[in-house]
Amino acid sequence: MTKQTITIKKGQQFPLTIKRLGINGEGVGYFKKQVVFVPGALPGEEVVVEATNIHPKYAEAKIKKIRKRSPYRVTPRCPVYEQCGGCQLQHLDYQAQLREKRDIVIQAFERHCRLPIETLEIRPTIGMDDPWHYRNKSQFQVGTKKGAVIAGLYGLNSHRLIDIPECVIQHPATNRVTNIVKMILQDLRIPIYNERAQTGLVRTIVARVGFHTGDVQLVLITTKKEIPRKELLIDEIKRRLPEVKSIVQNINGQKTSLIFGEESFLLEGEEYIQEVLGDLSFELSARAFFQLNPVQTVKLYDEVKKAAALTGTEKVVDAYCGVGTIGLWLAKDAGEIRGMDTIPEAIEDAKKNAKKHGFTNAMYVTGKAEVLLPKWVKEGWKPDVIVVDPPRTGCDQQLLQTILRVKPKTVVYVSCNPSSLARDVDVLSERYTVDYIQPVDMFPHTAHVECVSRLVLKND
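Structure tokens predicted for 23S rRNA (Uracil(1939)-C(5))-methyltransferase RlmD:
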């Protein structure tokens, strides 16, 4: 059988029926058996498209005309939705988004896992009661347009900065702080970074709010340490934004897409702001990782608790533990928690968090789970439950092999990428049965979907 090559030409227009959503939220259709990805198109729609990019195995296209609209197509709330690209699904009704996210998980398992899809219990996606203004942190690049200071995100596949005065998925406090800081920078004529010329000072405004406390942390990311009129800048921020409890400067003089540089200085106020999840409170420093949607995080962690099904005696490993949030969520129902992470600062925070909440049954170590686990087993400490919450790339292959050797009774896999989840489950299915997969919508109006999967050791 000869391998099919793409016969579609760039600029060619043709009709297309959209069959489903792809993993990035784009519509997927087939033209003469060739896959075509169409951003903005929805399942069930009949569209006329124009091919924009041709790749060896697929084509990308843009909508020229919608002949038959999806009944679930809605008007996006955001005025710059089309240009910004930060959200992918605002044009789809929210209940339909939840159904499509479950379908994205199903597709990932059909593609990357050998288990028959009909044997898997993939539950309906847990959504939000109010899927707007849920993000507790914004990171907006700063620029100028016609002499005015603007802040926002770079447009889709471009280096054009889109000003976003009112982001509808950001907490209102972060929008307010960003807008007022823009005005202060303008009033004080503080030099704004120009990416092309690589001149100027202020690159990024980062605002993070504690949903529970209302406290805001402001980070100004600059190319160098010296800030002209610095005292005046701090005074104006304090005067116009009394809710800002922490003002931090971070220096990033590199030509890079990374937002934060290595050096941070506290300019004014507290080093941390407080955030509360359930009965736990956390101190967040400028660079500490923390879940971006606190409301859904509680639902996600409660699903982890259900999947772990602890009775009070179990030994639990929290791999990729970060600042210890998941382990501490489980600590009062566990015999002992042991967490590990490769980032020493995160482990320090995890230790502090455990101590602050009075958990004496939680221990945190810097290192890799695949190195520490065999060592602990050798010393006679064998976990009953392992919770993994890996990055988008999934679990380290060595860790998967370690789990298969150590054989804890239950593995709870928290995933932010259905494709890597399906691949890893395929490896673990050698010794584990998938009890169920529970999708959770942590980022409404985007194509992201998180899952909590419960895997149970097979009887040998």
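Residues 113 and 425 are 7 Å apart (CA to CA).
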